[in-house]
Amino acid sequence: MATTEKHHEASTPEPLSFFSQVFHPTGITSSVENYHYKGSGTMEDPYVVVWIDHDPRNPMNWSSKRRWIITMLVATALLAVAFDSSAYSAGGQLIIMEFGTVQIVFTLGVSLFVLGFAIGPLLWAPMSEMFGRQVMFAFTYGILTAFNGGAIASPNIQSLVILRFFAGAFGASPLTMAGGVIADMFPARERGLAMSMFSAAPFMGPVLGPIVGGFVGETVGWRWIMGVITIFTGVLWIALLIFLPETYAPVILRKRAEALSKKTGMVYKSRAQVEQGDTSIGELFKTSLSRPWVLLFKEPIVLLLSIYMSIIYGTLYGLFGAFPIVFQQVRGWSTGIGGLAFLGVMVGMFAAIAYNAWDNKRYVKINDESDGFAPPEARMPPAIVGAIAIPIGLIWFAWTNYPSIHWFACIAAGAPFGFGMVLVFVAIFNYLIDSYTIFAASVLAANTVMRSVVGAAFPLFIPYMYDGLGIHWATMIPGFLAVICVPFPFLFYKYGAQIRKKCKYAAESEAFIRRMQKEAEQGDDDGEKGEDDASFEDRDSSEGGEDVEKEKEENKERPSEATYIAYGPREVMLETEEAERLERLDAEARRNEGMEAREEVEEPLPGSDPAVVAAKKSGSLRRLDSNASVDTTGQPKFERIKSTRSRASSRGANGSGLVRVKTYESNPFDLDRVNTRESFVRVKSKKSLREEGSGDLRGRQ
């Protein structure tokens, strides 16, 4: 069957406006339509849609400004949900008096909301794979706002706590997808600060909730607390509708393939569709509901670190019950002023974000020295610092909450707790992702479910524990638990590599990373050996040398965007030895073709097929063998050259600088997706560049 080739232009693709990407996610331009896709455009051999070079619709190619705006938007959406979880607690006495209920029933409004966080990741992760992040954010956040609005008019405590549960379940979507959006846009080495903001948001929101809710409740009543929450989430819902484009690569490419098929009448499919077929929502749910539990109970790393994070998370939500007792009942503060006690925790969180930004330089250095494959244990040093800070803060708070001691000493104790909490969460999140690359989504889902269940339980027994043990020893209980867990980060930092080898899924993930590292090194060797073949790039023969040189200059200026090879969700490497073999055959065929062109007569032989001659001149055919086999008409036999990625897209200009970039379509925040090693950029060291001479460097500029 004849193979139709889709050629691409050498020039930079047409830019896309921001709003066109929001409302038209496929990003189809003439460059996209005319790109050189593999395949024949038939049902048996469809065109395989991947990112084009410098694709403006690829989230990894967006400007830093755009990426940070979107990061702030989704982080704020996550913060609003966390704010929702705790602001309700500020209206406790008002709700109890109006509905004539008891403390534990009122507390269900917090616990059931947080319990909804345990259900959300199991639902929204697989649905985001099927429909995309943009659609799921719009749907779930709209429903969240509706349930918050319904809570304003609740006629009784039963309807209020039920509405709170459903609000928590739908509000859990940012917990699942906000981190995925960040992973879609930032390579691993640049993701540290963005992940710090993402990880701090679930804690910053609960701290802000009692502060705002306290003043609103004592001023205009508890229903206005729910009103403020509804306004907050409603405004963010509108902002998400207007400013959040689709960032999940498999969905973008699938929709692009569908649009190209409809527009051209040919058959286009994304890489994921070609390699694994169309996955049903039932299959996704089956995996999302079963695998997290397998990993939680069969992997010691997941279990121990999830227990540790659950204790910290539960302690935070336990403070929502402890602070009103210490500051309002014991010290006699009002509801609004009592909420200000959480400012100490907030200060510690901001300090942790700054610390992570500073520590990220250390990680980037290790990552570069490891050729983009830093060991997971490199993530743990901040967790060691945080693990020490958490018990210090809790013990400090336990023995300074006497009424006779100045209030500032008690509030200041929240700073080391908030500082340590964010450091531990960011480090462990990244450690789990790096340790369980291909299973990262299931690991994070298991972690989220366990944290949410514990976080839902703590507020229910905290009041009784403080009544029975007193404000000092009741605070020491989570303090003692935090002390017991202090060795965990150091244990995994020191012996993590040995532990991972003994864990089935962690060992499998490590083997996956080693294969990628080996293939990346092989790619480097192939790039060095192929420097002499730079003139035989896979180009349309009609392209001029000027365009080639122009694209080379662009590749030197923007090496991080050299080329993005689209991978399927569950693939390791799709273009490996076979792709390299095809490239070498292609280059050899073009060299042979160049020699043949100088020997051939311009006029075709009598009886020759004009289509064959034209195809041969265009470079799409080559001889089957050096003996020039002939067909029944006496004409030489030719085979069509299989389409491959251009050499310029997998090598830097002149074979130097950037050698290879491999980007996964997927990421760890979705069901068994991996994006933790999505960019393997191999750049020559400064030493080797100096050896080439400053004159040579100026010449390439």
TrEMBL record:
Cellular component, GO annotation: plasma membrane
Biased composition, class Basic and acidic residues, residue ranges: 536-560, 589-598, 688-701
Cross-referenced PANTHER family: MAJOR FACILITATOR SUPERFAMILY, MAJOR FACILITATOR SUPERFAMILY (MFS) PROFILE DOMAIN-CONTAINING PROTEIN
Protein keywords: Cell membrane, Membrane, Transmembrane, Transmembrane helix, Transport
Region entry Disordered, spans: 519-570, 589-659, 681-701
Protein's UniProt keywords contain Membrane: yes
Membrane topology note: Multi-pass membrane protein
The family this protein is said to belong to: Belongs to the major facilitator superfamily. DHA1 family. Polyamines/proton antiporter (TC 2.A.1.2.16) subfamily.
Protein's name according to its UniProt entry: Major facilitator superfamily (MFS) profile domain-containing protein
Compositional bias (Acidic residues): 522-535
Domain Major facilitator superfamily (MFS) profile: 70-497
GO molecular function per UniProt: transmembrane transporter activity
Location within or outside the cell: Cell membrane
Record's keyword annotation contains Cell inner membrane: no
Ranges of biased composition (kind: Low complexity): 646-657
Bias type Polar residues, positions: 626-635
Entry's transmembrane regions: 68-90, 102-124, 136-155, 161-183, 195-216, 222-244, 301-327, 333-358, 379-399, 405-432, 471-492
